[in-house]
Write a structure and sequence with these properties.
By secondary structure, the chain is an alpha/beta fold. The chain contains 31 helices and 28 strands. Helix 1 crosses helix 8, helix 8 packs across helix 9 and helix 8 packs parallel to helix 23.
Length: 770
């Protein structure tokens, strides 16, 4: 079925995980993607065959030696006819090949040129290889991840690559959106560091006040100190259950199910997030709850909590979710006859667009499968839009886009925040009590940066004019209300599109707008458990552990992509549409690099060893005489160099090789061996074992690149937050603005939609607005 970007021409010279994942998503939604591999194919093919199968499906594959001038000229002929070019070479390689942005832009000024590097185009780490483990080691992911031992902990799922792919797509679609009006192609730059920061954004911030008070940063934890239960428990049958009581009143309902409501009574308002527990209550949560959960099997607990409307979600193994009723209802599992792996089940398209849904186009190509076909038919490969001579419109790329966000918590609102970062005008509409997640300051600040806040009781008939005005003004409406709630507020899609037929309406429910679990509660990181991420990060044979990067940012990234796909489709057709972005679907994409054969064999998951050291002898942490080192060596010459540096033999048995390297590294000094490994061409890094937030937020280099913004606050002093994660040529960046106070812009918004000062005062007096 036609996708929102059907006909878009993409030339993909990327490799590994991030680039192919990004262009794979473009292919799923209709783009014609030609994947260009070097002779023999992408070097990552033998190491991640399942990921290759998933992220390159629907593409056409050609094989070119870009060091050969005639073959490079054929690539340039393709690029001349393309809309988008994607590369993931280390900085400087494209220029050395004559394929840098300046050269390509001169040939095809309407082409969007996308670069995905490991550490960014400039800066002190620009020349380091862009491997997931190296990025995680240096950025601090191995310090943040909980483990069964002390840090550093090898990160078991590749969220730096996943985030970089999403940011690249967001950047690409935004550049295409502006190109439609000014005809200019731009250079889009992001990196795996940016991708990791997109997930870290949920917690990575600080204020002068928190620094002065030495306020700890909340993260994945098994200890509850406030009236928010976010942890997992082993049940009577040995299976694990994740709990989250973030919904209004859910903490009190949970205590009642557990028989603890007399010792930890419910609050009057149900707004529990941020309310501290007493010392006695902390002890009850820590010591009594595990024993209580071991009194019943998991299925019984799940039903009890579902009946009480409390979020309780099973921990499943990777790909087990394929058999669950909601994933099947959401059409999240597709079957592909892969030419290398044979018939396999894969994760399907996560964002569901009603008018232009897209579809999986077929299996990933073998190396060079379509070389003759593509090169013989270059004349028929015409761009989506004709080339035009134009002067760049240098406003922020989404300047002029209007978004109304009725969402709450993080997973939904982060999507509109990402559009605000690129210049969209986002109005956040809250209840009079405010978004429940305001109780966790860092989380709220990240989800709502750059927005305006209106606090109102939308059930009050006096606000009908405001609601109508908001819906007519909006290009995009977002909410993550549970099914049926929007209908009661006249915010459902049918009501909204009667007022605004061209509206892009994005619903981000937990499980799905319809289906057997549509009314089931959903919170992060519990769906990470349902998908299998918690077993991925825990290591083989271990009980599940919470990931240090979860589905909330992932759902926001996918939501932003869904919004932009809808806007691009509307640009071309004038047609609005309904976009469904369930948190379940977004979380399933986190393990999209794993597939399942018909006999149940899982390929691509369960690779992390029991000690959470790594995936094998050459992608692993090693303890040295005075610290730790992380290495990644995929190519055989790199592996031979690694063993030579530390003075051991190269052997075929992975366990024996790891043991030999373990003994050798134990006798070496960290800095010395890292320097020798890098000199020999082996990717190596000293992994951080302590939290990196404060150092990162105060590094002048990160201020220079715009990844960190510092803004004054009237009571908190200066606030430092993650900001620019995608960079563009010929476009200004929107200035970073802190999240608004509750109702900070209520009067401004009401006046915008025709309310007089007296009418606004009357609404406030009647407690219809705040």
């Amino acid at each position: 079925m036609a996708g929102p970007i059907a006909g878009l021409r993409v030339v993909d010279c990327s490799h590994g995980m991030a680039g192919p994942r990004a262009t794979g998503l473009l292919a799923d939604y209709g783009a014609d993607v030609v994947w260009v591999e070097p002779p023999g194919g992408d070097p990552c093919r033998p190491h991640v065959p399942a990921a290759v199968s998933v992220f390159n499906r629907g593409k056409r594959g050609i094989e070119l030696d870009l060091t050969d001038t005639p073959q490079r000229d054929r690539l340039l002929e393709l690029i001349d006819r393309a809309d988008v070019f994607v590369e993931s070479w280390q900085p400087g390689v494209a220029e050395a090949l004559g394929l840098g942005f300046d050269a390509i832009h001169a040939r095809n000024p309407r082409l969007v040129y996308v670069s995905i590097s490991g550490f960014g185009e400039d800066g002190p780490d620009r020349d380091l290889p862009g491997y997931e483990a190296i990025v995680q080691a240096l950025l601090g992911g191995m310090a943040d991840q909980l483990g069964h031992r002390g840090a550093p902990i090898f990160v078991g799922w590749p969220f730096a690559s996943t985030g970089a792919a999403s940011l690249a797509v967001i950047g690409t679609l935004s550049a295409l959106y502006r190109r439609h009006t000014d005809g200019v192609g731009r250079h889009v730059q992001t990196s795996m560091v940016d991708g990791a920061l997109a997930y870290n954004s949920m917690m990575w911030s600080e204020t002068d006040q928190t620094v002065a008070l030495n306020t700890p940063v909340a993260g994945a934890s098994q200890t509850s100190t406030m009236r928010l239960l976010t942890r997992s428990f082993e049940c009577a049958d040995g299976e694990y259950l994740g709990m989250h009581t973030g919904a209004v009143g859910a903490f009190g309902r949970c205590m009642k199910v557990l028989g603890l409501d007399d010792r930890i009574p419910p609050s009057e308002t149900g707004m529990d997030i941020g309310v501290p527990l007493t010392d006695e209550q902390i002890k009850i949560i820590a010591e009594d709850l595990p024993a209580i959960y071991r009194t019943k099997p998991r299925a019984e607990w799940v039903q009890l909590f579902m009946d009480a409307d409390v979020c309780a979600i099973e921990h499943l193994r990777p790909t087990d979710v394929y058999d669950t009723p909601q994933a099947i209802h959401n059409q999240m599992v597709v079957e592909i006859d892969d030419p290398v792996l044979g018939p396999v089940q894969q994760v399907g398209l996560a964002a569901k667009l009603s008018a232009s849904p897209g579809a999986v186009g077929g299996p990933a190509p073998t190396v060079g499968q379509h070389t003759d076909e593509v090169l013989a038919n270059l004349a028929g490969w015409s761009p989506l839009e004709p080339a035009v001579a134009a002067t760049p419109d240098t406003r922020p790329l989404l300047d002029g886009v209007h978004v109304v966000d009725f969402g709450a918590y993080y997973a939904g609102p982060y999507s509109s925040r990402l559009l605000a970062d690129l210049g969209a005008d986002v109005i956040k509409v809250e209840t009079l009590l405010g978004d429940q997640v305001r109780g966790i300051d860092r989380v709220y600040a990240s989800a709502s940066a750059g927005k305006r806040s209106m606090a109102a009781n939308l059930k009050d008939p006096s606000l009908a004019k405001a609601l109508t005005g908001l819906l007519q003004w909006a290009d995009v409406v977002h909410h993550n209300l549970r099914p049926g709630a929007a209908d009661r507020l006249a915010l459902d899609y049918e009501s909204a599109r009667k007022l605004n037929p061209e509206l892009i309406y994005v619903h981000a429910p937990g499980w799905g707008a319809t289906g057997p679990f549509a009314f089931r509660q959903s919170f992060a990181p519990m769906l990470s458990g349902y998908i299998g991420v918690t077993f991925e990060v825990a290591g083989q044979f271990n009980p599940p552990m919470p990931p240090n990067a979860n589905e909330d940012p992932g759902n926001g990234l996918l939501g932003a992509i869904g919004m932009l796909l809808g806007l691009l489709h509307r640009q071309r057709t004038g047609e609005g549409q309904f976009v469904e972005n369930p948190q379940l679907n977004a979380t399933m994409t986190h393990l999209a690099y794993a597939v399942r054969r018909p006999d149940g064999e899982v390929i691509g998951a369960g690779m992390l060893d029991p000690l959470q050291m790594g995936f094998g002898p050459f992608e692993r942490l090693y303890e040295t005489a005075d610290g730790w080192v992380c290495i990644t060596a995929f190519a055989e010459d790199e592996r031979a160099a690694a063993v030579k540096v530390v003075g051991v033999d190269r052997v075929d048995d992975d366990d024996a090789q790891a043991d030999a390297l373990l003994s050798a590294f134990a006798g070496r000094k960290t800095e010395e061996v890292v320097a020798e490994l890098r000199a020999a061409g082996v990717a190596a890094a000293v992994p951080l074992a302590q939290k990196n937030i404060h150092a990162y937020m105060n590094d002048p280099e990160n201020r220079r690149t715009g990844r960190v913004a510092e803004c004054p606050h009237p009571t908190k002093g200066n606030v430092r937050e993650l900001a620019v994660l995608v960079r563009f040529t010929d476009a200004e960046m929107a200035p970073h603005k802190l999240a608004p106070e509750l109702g900070e812009h209520t009067d401004e918004v009401l006046a915008q939609f025709g309310y007089s000062a007296d009418e606004i005062a009357a609404l406030r007096e009647a407690k219809a607005v705040r």
